[in-house]
């Protein structure tokens, strides 16, 4: 597994305001979107492209364009939705699929409650969006789900991660031949006994959309 932690003062600055409990939902949503666009720049470093012939007003030249099939972005509902606009800004021609996953707050077990994805993901580059890599349970399950549909090129974009979650993911993927890349805003200190990232930012879904 290839873990990339963004190291940029603008990302650290925006994360600080995102974490602050005084930040209201509209500001939180805007910051999450801006952060994802910055992380997407790194996450798409290996996006598939092909040569493309054009004429400038001065001369013919060869550029590049995104290859087909186009990448697919998969936000994990509900909090991953808050990252979608930021990602689509950088990859406007990507398709978007949805995966609804929920964590039982007592057992921390994850279950899938919704999916809107193509049946066959063979040959597709897949970008999973989930703001919090906490226990890693959601991401492990999402990766299983996507590989069962044929995905072999998966990048997860997360705003915050706990070391325990990264370790769990690494252990689960140790015997896999599928190269998974994880792009993170930062790695926090730890998980608490409720499975929250410390210092973290609280419940990302609630901060984005309110308590439902
Ligand atoms: N999910 C969240 O929204 N926050 C955490 O800290 C952990 C999981």
UniProtKB/TrEMBL annotation:
Enzyme class: transferase
Pfam families according to UniProt: UPRTase (PF14681)
GO CC entries: cytoplasm
Listed cofactors: Mg(2+)
Enzyme Commission number(s): 2.4.2.9
Keywords tagged on the record: Allosteric enzyme, Glycosyltransferase, GTP-binding, Magnesium, Nucleotide-binding, Transferase
The UniProt record lists the keyword Ribosomal protein: no
Activity regulation comment: Allosterically activated by GTP.
InterPro entries reported in the protein's UniProt record: PRTase-like (IPR029057), PRTase_dom (IPR000836), Upp_B (IPR034332), UPRT (IPR005765), UPRTase/APRTase (IPR050054)
Binding-site residues, uracil: 197, 202-204
Pathway in which the depicted protein is active: Pyrimidine metabolism; UMP biosynthesis via salvage pathway; UMP from uracil: step 1/1
Single Gene Ontology BP annotation: uracil salvage
Role of this protein: Catalyzes the conversion of uracil and 5-phospho-alpha-D-ribose 1-diphosphate (PRPP) to UMP and diphosphate.
NCBIfam families: PRK00129.1 (NF001097), upp (TIGR01091)
PANTHER family found in the cross-reference section: ADENINE PHOSPHORIBOSYLTRANSFERASE (PTHR32315), URACIL PHOSPHORIBOSYLTRANSFERASE, CHLOROPLASTIC (PTHR32315:SF4)
HAMAP family: Upp_B (MF_01218_B)
Name by which UniProt lists this protein: Uracil phosphoribosyltransferase
């Amino acid at each position: 597994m290839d873990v990339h932690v963004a190291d940029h003062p603008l990302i650290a600055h925006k994360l600080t305001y995102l974490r602050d409990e005084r930040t209201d939902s509209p500001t939180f949503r805007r910051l999450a979107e801006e952060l994802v666009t910055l992380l997407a720049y790194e996450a798409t470093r290996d996006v598939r492209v092909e040569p493309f012939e054009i004429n400038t007003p001065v001369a013919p030249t060869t550029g590049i364009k995104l290859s087909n099939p186009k990448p697919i972005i998969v936000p994990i509902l509900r909090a991953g939705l808050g990252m979608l606009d930021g990602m689509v800004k950088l990859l406007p021609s990507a398709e978007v699929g949805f995966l609804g996953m929920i964590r039982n707050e007592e057992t921390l077990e994850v279950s899938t409650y919704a999916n809107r994805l193509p049946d066959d993901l063979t040959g597709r580059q897949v970008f999973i969006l989930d703001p919090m890599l906490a226990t890693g349970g959601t991401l492990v399950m999402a990766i299983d789900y996507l590989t069962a549909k044929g995905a072999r090129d998966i990048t997860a974009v997360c705003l915050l991660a706990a070391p325990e979650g990264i370790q769990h993911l690494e252990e689960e993927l140790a015997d896999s031949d599928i190269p998974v890349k994880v792009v993170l805003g930062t790695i926090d200190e730890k998980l608490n006994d409720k499975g929250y990232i410390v210092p973290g930012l609280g419940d990302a879904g609630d901060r984005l959309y309110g308590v439902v």
